[in-house]
Design goal:
- With 147 residues, the chain is α/β, with parallel strands linked by helices.
- The chain has a single domain, classed as 3-Layer(aba) Sandwich (Rossmann fold), CATH 3.40.50.300.
- It has 6 helices and 4 strands; from the N terminus they run E-H-E-H-H-E-H-E-H-H.
- A 4-stranded parallel sheet has the order 2-3-1-4, with helices on one face.
- The longest helix is centred in the middle third of the chain and has 20 residues.
- It is globular.
């Protein structure tokens, strides 16, 4: 059975760190970083402190879903992974339904990484290697629909 482990939550909650740890411990596992699928316009918007809206996120989510399907359909003729660990904010239920549709060709485990606001703020302020503007934390917390 193919398994998607979707690590979700707001920026700074530890999705990527947790995903790398899982990748190292699970056999035949691939880690996908959701941020890698953002178009330049989204990155620029977030860097400048503007929150993304549903229209901004739609092509990003579609690209991630397409990559999941591509990996498991083994379009390149290589070895298809047993598990994909995806670090993706997936803030709203409808975003998660794009990533994990009812007819998905894989099982899914959604893991919500929840961290209190003060800790998130500290983590985001300490980051120097990411395009996400810490001023956007409250907009993400407002958009978040806990699973």
């Amino acid at each position: 059975q193919r398994l998607l482990v979707l690590l979700m939550g707001v920026s700074g909650c530890g999705k990527s760190t947790t995903a790398r740890l899982l990748q190292d411990r699970l056999p035949n596992c691939v880690f996908l970083e959701g941020d890698d699928f953002h178009p330049a316009a989204n990155r620029n918007k977030m860097t400048s402190g503007q929150p993304l809206n549903d229209q901004d996120r739609a092509p990003w989510l579609a690209a991630i879903h397409a990559e999941l399907v591509h990996r498991w359909l083994d379009a390149d003729g290589g070895m298809s992974p047993d598990t994909i660990v995806l670090a993706c904010s997936a803030l709203k239920a409808r975003y998660r339904s794009v990533l994990v549709p009812v007819d998905a060709p894989f099982a899914a485990l959604v893991v919500y990484l929840r961290v209190d606001r003060d800790a998130l703020s500290q983590r985001l302020s300490a980051r120097t290697d990411h395009f996400f503007n810490p001023a956007l934390l409250d907009s993400q917390l407002s958009a978040l629909e806990s699973p």
